[in-house]
Amino acid sequence: MSKKLYVGGLSYDTTDDSFKAGFSEAGNVESANVIIDRMSGRSKGFGFVEFSTEEEGQKAIDMFDGKDFEGRTIKVSEARPMKQFDDRR
């Protein structure tokens, strides 16, 4: 079973490719996406990385949480499901 992680505090210069390459030290990265602001086209400073197994995901948390990545101290944790927007008022 795969494991998806949230990574916060990324440098605005981090690309999907450099993100994937860096996190591949922990295991087989299935996907790595830096979230981009639609208006400015710049990184929002966070992204998501998905590993093939739970063990690789946990290894990435242990390796990278609170550590330097491309000049910034990053926060790595298990991704939580996105909350659904509730427009009832």
What does this structure look like?
This protein has 89 residues and is of the alpha+beta class. The protein has one domain: 2-Layer Sandwich (Alpha-Beta Plaits), CATH 3.30.70.330. Helix content is 21%, strand content 35%. The protein contains two helices and six strands; from the N terminus they run βαββαβββ. The protein has helices spanning 16-23, 54-64; strands at residues 3-8, 29-36, 43-51, 68-69, 72-73, 75-78. A four-stranded antiparallel sheet has the order 2-3-1-6. Strands 4-5 form a two-stranded antiparallel sheet. Strand 4 and strand 5 (72-73) form a beta hairpin. The mean pLDDT is 92.
SSE topology sketch:
Elements: E1 3-8, H1 16-23, E2 29-36, E3 43-51, H2 54-64, E4 68-69, E5 72-73, E6 75-78
Antiparallel strand pairs: 1-3, 1-6, 2-3, 4-5
Provide a quick synopsis of the model.
The protein is of the alpha+beta class. It is 21% helix and 35% strand.
> How far do the termini sit from each other?
39 Å
* Mean pLDDT value: 92
The percent range for strand residues is 25-35%
Our count of domains comes out at: 1
CATH superfamily: RRM (RNA recognition motif) domain
Structural class: alpha+beta
CATH-derived architecture: 2-Layer Sandwich
Physical arrangement of strands within the biggest beta sheet: 2-3-1-6
